[in-house]
Write a structure and sequence with these properties.
Strand order of the largest sheet of chain B: 1-4
Shape of chain B: globular
Number of strands of chain A: 8
Number of strands of chain B: 4
Number of helices of chain B: 3
Helix content of chain A: 40-55%
Strand order of the largest sheet of chain A: 3-4-2-5-1-6-7-8
Structural class of chain A: alpha/beta
Oligomer: heterodimer
Order of helices and strands of chain B: HHHEEEE
Low-confidence stretches of chain B: none
Mean pLDDT of chain A: 92
Chain lengths: ~260, ~90
């Protein structure tokens, strides 16, 4: 049975595309048949993060407009034979596709893939509506900052209003040192505020920038972020993976000092 | 006093959390902070007709979840400290 997952956040720049690339690649590495769809028409980026920008011939809008078959627009990944990318159009705008067309295309892809991952554009306009239309579940990405959390809350409200039953939270770019100092909200704080299930915490890691520079997703390699994405992939498939010690964001010292700072 | 403030400076994490909690209450019910303020002023006016209240420390909020975090119909909570219960009604 296939599952359509939309990766969304509301706010831009919190890591939707990086998350899509890594979750898609991680699932493919586990032997699943995966297709990543970039739904950000006019501002495509998933192709560069995946390092597949030189292979684009047809795109999402071409498929929707009937200029090519779905298969012609799918780019096979360099690393995993069961991973494909459907790039977005760079020259069109968001109104080139409507939600009905999106649902139609996604449903056709269900036959060939286990996971269909939709990388959603920022905002809550047409592009967002297109991306959520065909999805079964959502991964909401946020960073531990007030602006990102506020937007995530709005997105969660819209997803709930659209009867999404599976909405999971990914907290990205958590800086443990800052949390320890009391200068950044902890994962527990964010979960407390947003009140949805947590599926992963990705620490702030320079390796993410390096990986993006190289067009190589870092899921599953030895880096902290790579491990965190790997764990998210396992949890997406339904495996219970305990959160890594650092993911809790509670150091020995905060535990000790907590005794003196009971509020 | 300054030195004391320096030592008990509130962590920005706590400030962020508190600000978000208040902000999201109004976001979630689609009700602006200005409108909440107007509701608050009007409630204070009405109650003041019958008893003496502390309008300064009065708080109102709309909640969509109960104490156990479950969804319910949005409910307006008002916390109005009464200074004198038996104000003479003119």
């Amino acid at each position: 049975m296939s599952e359509v997952i939309v990766v969304t956040s509301g706010k831009g720049g919190v890591g939707k595309t990086t998350t899509s690339a890594n979750v898609g690649t991680g699932l493919a590495a586990m032997g699943k048949r995966v297709v990543l769809i970039d739904t950000d028409i006019g501002l495509r980026n998933l192709d560069v993060v995946m390092g597949l920008e030189n292979r684009i011939v047809y795109n999402l809008v071409d498929v929707v407009e009937g200029k090519c078959r779905i298969k012609q627009a799918l780019i096979k990944d360099k690393r995993h034979p069961n991973l494909y990318l459907m790039p977005s159009a760079q020259t069109k705008d968001k109104t080139a596709v409507n939600p009905e067309q999106m649902v139609l295309m996604v449903n056709q892809l269900r036959e060939q893939f286990d996971y269909i991952i939709l990388d959603c554009p920022a905002g809550i306009e047409q592009g967002f509506k297109n991306a959520i239309a065909g999805a079964d579940r959502a991964l909401v990405v946020t960073t531990p900052e007030v602006s990102a959390i506020r937007d995530a809350d709005r997105i969660i409200g819209i997803l709930e209003a659209n009867n999404f039953s599976k909405i999971d939270l990914i907290i990205n770019r958590l800086k443990y040192e800052m949390v320890k100092r009391g200068d950044m909200m902890s994962a527990a704080d964010v979960v407390d505020i947003l009140a949805i299930g947590l599926i992963g915490i990705v620490p702030d890691d320079e390796n993410v920038v390096i990986a993006t520079n190289q067009g190589e997703p870092l899921v599953g390699n030895g880096t902290l972020a790579g491990k965190a994405y790997q764990n998210i992939c396992y949890r997406v498939t339904g495996k219970e993976i305990p959160f890594m010690e650092f993911e809790k964001g509670v150091s020995f010292w905060t535990r000790v000092s907590g005794i003196f700072h009971k509020n | 006093m300054r030195i004391k403030n320096f030592f008990i400076r509130r962590k920005s994490r706590e400030v962020a959390k508190d600000r978000l909690k208040i902000l999201l209450i109004s976001d979630r019910v689609n009700c602006s902070p200005e409108m909440m303020e107007m509701i608050k002023t009007d409630i204070a006016k009405v109650i003041s007709k019958y008893m003496k209240i502390d309008a300064e420390s009065m708080e109102i909020q709309i909640s969509k979840t109960d104490s156990k975090g479950r969804d319910k119909t949005p409910t307006l909570y008002a916390n109005i400290p009464i200074l004198d219960l038996h104000k003479n009604i003119n």
